[in-house]
Design goal:
There is one protein chain. The chain has a 7-stranded mixed sheet, sandwiched between helices. A 3-stranded mixed sheet has the order 1-2-11. The chain has about 400 residues and is an alpha/beta fold. It has helices at about 5-15, 55-70, 75-80, 85-95, 110-120, 135-145, 155-165, 185-195, 220, 250-260, 265, 275-290, 290-310, 330-340, 370-385, and strands spanning about 35, 40-45, 100-105, 125-130, 145-150, 170-175, 200-205, 230-235, 245-250, 320-325, 345, 345-350, 360-365. Helix 8 (about 185-195) links the parallel strand 6 and strand 7 (about 200-205). It has 2 domains: about 25-55 and about 290-385, Aspartate Aminotransferase, domain 1, CATH 3.90.1150; about 55-290, Aspartate Aminotransferase, domain 2, CATH 3.40.640.10. The protein has 15 helices and 13 strands. It is globular, with a radius of gyration of 21 Å. The chain binds pyridoxal-5'-phosphate.
């Protein structure tokens, strides 16, 4: 069978199993209301948790920086693409997360590849939660270290693996908030284990940065874990911060090693300086507009209370990610389509993004939602989910 034949067969299989992926064409800025095919939808699936992606101040900084610095960065950071704006943002991020230094990457995916493959290699082992984000799993594979996955949030299972490991060096890697589940990693326990078994701990806080902690500095702020306890912190800028890119924070040796070794840092064009300027503004807004975090917290509680009252299949999550477990992929897709007809945008998440038979509707809340909008959603969900015929 030729490669092309194989691809065609794969696409057909995807279609019959309701696993075919299609993109929607968004005709408006990101926000609580988005426009598709000329129709407006209430959006419950973006990661713009604080509503900063289309914030006027963020846009203004972006425009100003584009006037002053142009659009393209022109080259990689190590050639001559590292602008004063990138540098200023790195310093602000380091201070924000209370670590000695931070380094910008073009995407979170690339940050993860770069960190893991810089830290470990052939004779080492990397221990990962089963539900870690795909970029962390890929990073483990790329590093050539032995990839050992432990049951989700199972500290005892991890301990067993650590005890029996023959690896030279050990790296433990976890999502802070699990992206498709919304639950939180037991980071304090993981940090104790790492210290006990002489392993290094890395936390990917893509969904916690901006949202958790008193100042919005993320899960590690909320759990009071310093850079001794969690030496490697990764955060993304495309979610709560509303812009694009990612950063890694840690000590001098870590950052200098990444600059010198991380291939996904070295061999790629720096993001536009205007993105850095916009991110500096979101970082300030996070702090001056702390009501966004408070509001989000209230909406999460409001949603969960309502969802429990109408017996929706809620998953165990205290964060802005509030998935409803559906199970069957066709059912999840049918539900998502029914919701769309009624004016709600919620994507169905299917295998292999999540384990078999755990397809779900991944609902995300934003500080820009109102309680009324959440109530409307709950009402619609209660009708649709309790209806037997939604897969028709
Ligand atoms: C979104 C996400 C990433 C990837 O970040 P991008 O900047 O979108 O490439 C990495 N890790 C986790 C846990 C994520 O949710």
């Amino acid at each position: 069978m030729s490669i092309i034949e194989r691809l065609k067969q794969n696409l057909q299989e995807r279609e019959t199993k309701a696993l075919y992926r299609r993109r929607k064409l968004i005709q408006s800025p990101q926000g609580v209301r988005v426009c598709i095919d000329g129709r407006e939808y209430l959006n419950f699936c973006s990661n713009d948790y604080l509503g900063l992606a289309n914030h006027p101040e963020v846009i203004k900084s972006f425009q100003q920086a584009a006037n002053d610095f142009g659009v393209g960065s022109g080259s990689a950071h190590l050639i001559n693409g590292h602008s004063v704006l990138h540098h200023e943002l790195e310093e602000a991020l380091a201070e924000f997360v209370n670590r000695p230094r931070a380094l910008l990457f073009s995407t979170g995916y690339m940050a993860n590849l770069g960190v893991v493959s810089t830290l470990v290699g052939r004779s080492d082992a990397v221990f990962e939660d089963r539900l870690n984000h795909a970029s962390l799993i890929d990073a483990g594979i790329l590093s050539r270290a032995k990839l050992q996955r432990y049951a989700h949030n199972d500290v005892n299972a991890l301990q067993q693996l650590l005890i029996s490991s023959q690896a030279k060096e050990k790296l433990i890697v976890t999502d802070g908030i699990f992206s498709m589940d919304g639950d939180v990693a037991p980071v304090s326990d993981l940090s104790r284990l790492a210290q006990k078994y002489d392993a290094l701990l890395m936390v990917d806080d893509a969904h916690g940065i901006g949202v958790l902690g008193q100042r919005g500095a993320g899960l590690l702020e909320q759990e009071n874990l310093n850079s001794q306890q969690v030496p490697i912190l990764m955060g993304t800028l495309g979610k709560a911060l509303g812009t694009s890119g990612a950063f890694v924070a840690g000590d001098d040796v870590l950052i200098e090693s990444l600059i010198n070794n991380a291939r996904s840092y070295i061999y790629t064009t720096a993001t536009p300086p205007a993105i850095a300027a916009a991110t500096l503004t979101s970082l300030q807004l996070l702090q001056t507009e702390s009501w966004r975090r408070e509001k989000l917290k209230q909406l999460i509680q409001h949603f969960r209370k309502g969802a429990n009252e109408c017996s929706l299949p809620l998953m165990e999550s205290a964060t802005a990610i509030q998935p409803l477990l559906i199970g069957n992929s066709s059912k999840a897709v049918a539900l998502s389509e029914r919701l769309k007809k009624k004016g709600y945008l919620i994507s169905a998440i299917r295998p292999p993004t999540v384990p078999e038979e755990t397809a779900r509707l991944r609902i995300t809340l934003s500080a820009e939602h109102s309680e009324e909008q959440v109530d409307q959603l709950l009402e619609t969900l209660a009708i649709l989910i309790n209806m037997a015929d939604y897969d028709g």
